[in-house]
Amino acid sequence: MSGLSNLMQRFFLFSLALIVFGGVSAISVSAAEGEGITVVGVGSVEAKPSVVELTGMVIGQGQLAGDAVTKFHGNRRRAETAFKNLKIPGLVIVEDGMSLYSSLNASQMQAMMQGMAVNNTQSQKLSVSETLKLRLTGIEKLSTQELLETIVRIVDSGKDAGVVIGNDTTPPIPGVYDRSKARNTMATFKVTNVKKLKEAAYQKAIENAKEQAEKLAQLTGVKLGKVTSINGQGSTPRGGSTVVYNYGITQGVTNASEKESDEQPSTLFKPVPISAVVKVTFSIE
């Protein structure tokens, strides 16, 4: 049989295999002469959150700057003492930045709402605020009920000390309803060691790709060769990095403008999937 006839027969068998395999799996598969077999593998692992973070805000207000600062320091010491007295293992306070701003009084806010000019000569309250991250580790060892009771203790203790727990629900324009701030998210759960989990997800994705390629090779009557290239197309929802393997050469391409975190946040206390997608090309022998 001539070389042209062999080529046409191989192309026919491979096209038939693609049609048959397409009914079995929805994962994209492609092949071309000289390129081998290219498949997209998907891998995923799940991990339970091990950290919960609550956001608290300490505020001090006064007509004079000195009064506002004095009240702020007093409230800050009271809040720190209240959280330490809870003696909860794994609970730490992380400072997340301080801000200073002036607040409009009632008459100024009413004038603004009515579209009138605001009289800036009237006295305004100076506010000093600091955002605190209340970070509790080791929650994967707690039951849902135990974790809920612990969070309630932290929230109640913070409120007794004058700490505002939860995200900022203050509307950007006083008196105007902001739907995006209608829900006060009190806690954020986080999966740690995401980079290690991502490696396991990539391993599963590569195994998935190899399994697909072996099925295709078997259906088309060809022998699967070595890997010629691997392209890491995606990973966890936060993303930010791509890993490319090509003919034995490994290159790591990272977006320098986005520092990839080793934590994956979630609003739910439940296992979080960490996924990876790879595009693998195998040669045909």
Automatic annotation (TrEMBL):
PANTHER family assigned to the protein according to its UniProt record, in alphabetical order: SLR1258 PROTEIN (PTHR34387:SF2)
InterPro entries named in the record: 26kDa_periplasmic_antigen, SIMPL/DUF541
Coiled coil: none
Protein's recorded name: Oxidative stress defense protein
Gene3D superfamilies reported for this sequence: Protein of unknown function (DUF541), domain 1
Membrane-crossing segments per the record: none
Classification of source organism: Bacteria, Pseudomonadati, Planctomycetota, Planctomycetia, Planctomycetales
GO biological process: DNA damage response
